[in-house]
Each structure stands twice: as C-alpha cells, then as structure tokens.
TrEMBL record:
It comes from Astyanax mexicanus. It is a peripheral membrane protein. One of its GO terms (molecular function) is L-ascorbic acid binding. One of its GO terms (cellular component) is rough endoplasmic reticulum membrane. It holds the Pfam family 2OG-FeII_Oxy. It is an enzyme of class 1 (oxidoreductase). This is Procollagen-lysine,2-oxoglutarate 5-dioxygenase 1. It is found in: Rough endoplasmic reticulum membrane.
Amino acid sequence: IASQLRSNTPPLWVASFEKLLVLTVATKETDGFKRFMRSAQHFNYTVKVLGRGEKWNGGDYMTAPGGGQKVRLLKSALADIKEKDKIILFIDSYDVVFSSGPKELLKKFQQAKHKVVFSAETLIWPDRHLEDKHPHVREGKRFLGAGGFIGYVPNLKEMVSDWSGEDDDSDQLFYTKVYINPAKRKSINITLDSKCRLFQNLHGALDEVVLKFEDGRVRARNVLYDTLPVIVHGNGPTKLQINYLGNYIPNVWTFETGCTVCSEDLRSFSTLKSEFPVVVIGIFIQQPTPFVSAFFERLVNLKYPKKRLNLFIYNQEPHHDKHIRSFLESHEADYKVVKLIGPDEGVDVITSRNIGFDMCRDDIDCEYFFSVDVEVVLKNEDTLKILTELNKPFVAPMMTKPGRLWTNFWGALSADGYYARSEDYVDIVQARRVGIWNVPYVSQVYLLRADVLRSELKDSDLFNSATLDPDMAFCSRVRDQVGGNREVEFGVFMFVTNMHSFGRVLNTENYQTNHLHNDLCCFKYIMANVASHSLLLIPCPDVYWFPIFTERTCTHLVEEMEHFGQWSGGGNTDTRIQGGYENVPTIDIHMNQVNFEKEWQKFLLDYIAPVTEKMFPGYFTRALFDLAFVVRYRPDEQPSLRPHHDASTFTINIALNQVGIDYQGGGCRFIRYNCSIRAPRKGWALMHPGRLTHYHEGLPTTSGTRYIAVSFVDP
C-alpha cells in the first residue's frame, strides 16, 4: 500500500470498481435469487447471471454432491473475458446476501495477498478422507468452501482448465482437489478466507454469527474471529438461518428506518386499470368453533369486490351447518362461484385442503388462494386487499391470541422441525419491530399466489406426512421444495406481516355445543371495551357503573336461562347453596346449573378484577365468586327485593335487558346514602361493596320482565 501511495497509484479497491464482475448461476428467478439481486443492487455490484433459462442438471446438494454445471458455466464465461486484470467474484445466489460493498470486498481481497481466495468452512465435505491433505492454518477455518471465491481471470482460468466433468459431478470436490494439490495451489496462488473476512459460510458456524446493528446499518458479525464478512452464505442445511439474517441484511430493517423494502414491488389497486384479481377463499371448519356466524359476517364485510371472489367452504362439523346455510341463503348470489363440502360427504381435512387448492389451480382466472380457518377473527376489513397489494408469492397476516404470547407464525424451528423462538419473535409479536418477515412456518390464514400453486407447489398432496402434522408438512414442502432442482432447492419464501392490525385467533379448546347459545362460553371475546375505563361512572358513593357486555351477549344469556327453564321458586329453602337456606331469596338460576361457572370465573378474573383493583386501591382479588346467578323480576312473580346486605366483599350486578323497552320500574336503591339507580343500562355493571356499608334493595318492577346477572365476589 505504501509503495502505491508513493507512486500515486490508487489502491486496488479504489481503482478496480470497474474491473470487478460478480458471476453467479441462476437457472430460475426464485425468491432467494431476488433477495440476492436486491442486496447486490443495494451496494452497486455489477452482476452477470449464468445459466438463465437453462435446465438445472447439477443435483440438489442436499442428498448428494453436485454443482458441476456451475463449473462448466464458469469456464465458458471466463473464456469470453480477455482482460487479464479483471477480478471475478463467483458466488452462489439463492442462499447468499451481500453485507457490504465492492470497496470493502476489494480491500480485503488485496489484504489476503493471493490471486484467488476461497471461502472457508469448519466442516469438510464431500470427502472426509481428504482431511489430512488440507494445509493447516494458524487460526481459523481449514476447509475450502466452493460456494464463493474471488480471483483474477488468468488464475481462475488456470484453476478450471482441467474441468471435464459432468453437470452433476461435485464442484466442491473438484476445487478441493485443486487446493490440496501443493503445486496447483502455489501455481494458481490460492488461499482460504479462514477468518471469514470476505465470506461467511453458515453451515457449522451458526453460533459464531450475530446481527450487528450500528449507525443505521445491519450486517453479520463473526464473534469468534471478530470479523465483519462481506458475503453471507446459507450453505447446506442453513436455509432458515440465511432467511432470518436476510430479514435484516443489508439494511432491510434497521432500528432507525424500520422496514426499508416493505413498499417495494407493490401491486397498487389505486392505479389498477383492470379488475381486481380473482381470489378463491378457502374456508375450513374442522372443529366446533365459537362465533361462526360472526366469521361469515366479517367475510361479507371484506372490502373486496365479491364478484371477484370464489368461495370454497369445507365443514366437518354438523353443528355449524345452520350457520353456513344462513350465510348462503343471504349471500351466495353475491359471489362468483361457491363450492361447499359438508360433513356428510366423508371428505377428510387433508383432502379438503388439496381440493381447495385444485379449485384455484383449475380456474384459469384465479390469481390467489386465500386460506382462512374459521377460528380466525378478521377484524381488518382491508385484510385481503392489503395482502394482495404486497405482491408476495406467499404472505400471511400476523394473528395473535389475546393475553398470550402466541401467533400464527413461528420465527424459527427446532432441530426436529417443531417450534423454536427466534431472537426477534417477541419484538415482532409486540410490534416493536414492524415489517414483512421471512419465516419458516405459518398457519390458519395466508394468501398464496396461484402461479406458485401451478408450478412450485403443483404436487396434488401437499399436506400428507408420516411424521408431521398437516400444517407442518405443508410448510415443510413450501420451504424445502424437495424435487431435485437446485432452483427450487429451498422453495418459496413464506412471509408474515405485522404492518397492520389484522385480528386474532379464537381459542377453541373446551368449546361445547350443548347450549342454546354455545358462544356464551367465551365471554372474554364478547365484552364491550372497558380497558380504558373511560366510561366508568360513580352514581352513588363507592358504587361504580361501567359497560361490560354487548347487547347480543345480554340477550343470549337471557335466552339461555329461559331455555334451561329451571328457575328457583324464590323460597328460603335452597338446596343449591351450602347450608340449604337463603335469607334473601330470589327467583334465579345459578351459573353452575348451566355449566357456565368456569367461564364466569374467567370473565370475573380477566375483566372485573382489574376494575376492582383500580377502584379500590390496595385491594387485590382473585375474583373467586361464592355465588353467580341470573335473577328474574316480574310484577306477578317477584317484583322487588327487600333491603339487605350481600354476603360478599363486593357484588357485580349486570343489567341484561333494557328499562323502558323490556320492562318498567326496577333499579337499585342504596339506603344509607338515599341514592338510587333507576335506569340501569343494558350490558352495564354496577359494582359495590357487599357487606356492612351498602345496605340496598331492589326496586319494584311494575311491568314486563327484568333480568340481572349477579356475582358475589370474595378474595
């Protein structure tokens, strides 16, 4: 360097930008190739692609050595290059990203003081018997990696001059034999990038590599050698790891800018001259699920032209036939095509999903398949439009389950192919990192492009596996694309986006179908919004009044109790309670009589306990109720309730119907404060202390029928 400065000759990395050419082989433009090219363009590399449109005959790398086709293509390309001072970077593309630019690459190449520099690996492959023939290195990796090397044209020509192998012969073995031959190594002037200054191969080195965020940049850092490699290669079985790193490198997502590529390649509907793309929506009902009617209501409300939508509905549950019939009676004519497979047709779950895909594959007009399981709550009416505009082969909206660190995607996989938590998973779920993320697994809702179904995913059965669940088997096939073609060696990228709030996924565990209104078991999903307590009123001292139930919930709870019909007689003798005697009896039905006690307990714990802790500082409750019941007041039955104290620390009293419409009169009077609430609002709760201070009475119902839900709560 000093001699160059003395002679006013610029260093190699300054003078040779135009002399650097990147060569890569790509017979097909896969998602991985597009990622590679994006990173190359980010740093202004000049790239020439070899083998475009050519059939790949070089093996699949995962089951046996291969890659000889790459050597043939390189040898042919080098023959056409006459400049002796030309520098060639020959690199894989489908599983490679650039982490820095040509200046740094050339600088590190010159510092290596050799004419050809290969990437290095910890593991020897494909012939372990050649281990002893490799030169020892003072520090770093000892074995050659054929996935990336840089050198001058004359030296590279000499290196490949003896190639006469077949396309499916091993390029790795060919270059290894050149390297371990002392005479050839010296003549060609080859060395290895042992400390990963230029090339980082991930296979055998996953623990060495971390993301480095600094000054608005993201790149990989090798912590073992404290180096910053220019090129990162997900060689061998490390495709998921390069996908993870590719979510950030190079500057795809940074803390300063957020997502920098999320607005690229969008399919904008605002400038769409033709009609919206035709989408087949596949709806899958595999188990009893709450709120199926609401699911179809949200489907109708999607902001997408219905005449551009075809529906495929698979229902395995007879319980839900009525919900589907109701939907179709009102809306079937709105859609272009509707296909229904019911529980009587004997079609299993796996077959149904394959049939749904075929409905899209076989329709020449179909451009997308939108798969939605019925437990998905699509709150965002623009979901389908947003996903289509992203213009990805496979993309899913991120869905969560309230109160749980659960989503419909996995950030990583364990060694046996099951769930593992990626380093960024929590930040993505909690929206501290927002963008579009390449992930190894999604389920329950996703948009899949039809041309992918007709090509990469044309297999007629994508869900069957002897060892994996259907959803995992499907994702494995999408990711891995086992089929012998290198261009689809690691398949279609599966993206999940958390750029918008899309909805949630219902918990279907323990859902029963033996009630009139089965959805009442899921009280936690049908509350009015009380999170902010902005509507909390104080009509009387230490009496709090706030909305808690939707009107539909109230109506269904009343109908459920009347359907059950076993109202108490209103006498003092009551075998349902401990001791068998009720001092202040009402005509009522207890929650445990209709098997709602567990759900009611959870409702109190999740929604009422936070209010009590806010309103009564220092009081903490586990919301353990002694009694929970629905009371019925009628003028000719039991119009009122005499003054009394409740046998509780505090009481919750929820109005289940509307004064002035369903009944007249009614209300509650707190005698000590001479304070009455005479117009209870449907779905609103009164919360007040039970013992000692709040002596109260139920005011007479003069006409109609009044219903309230009462809970006696103790810590």
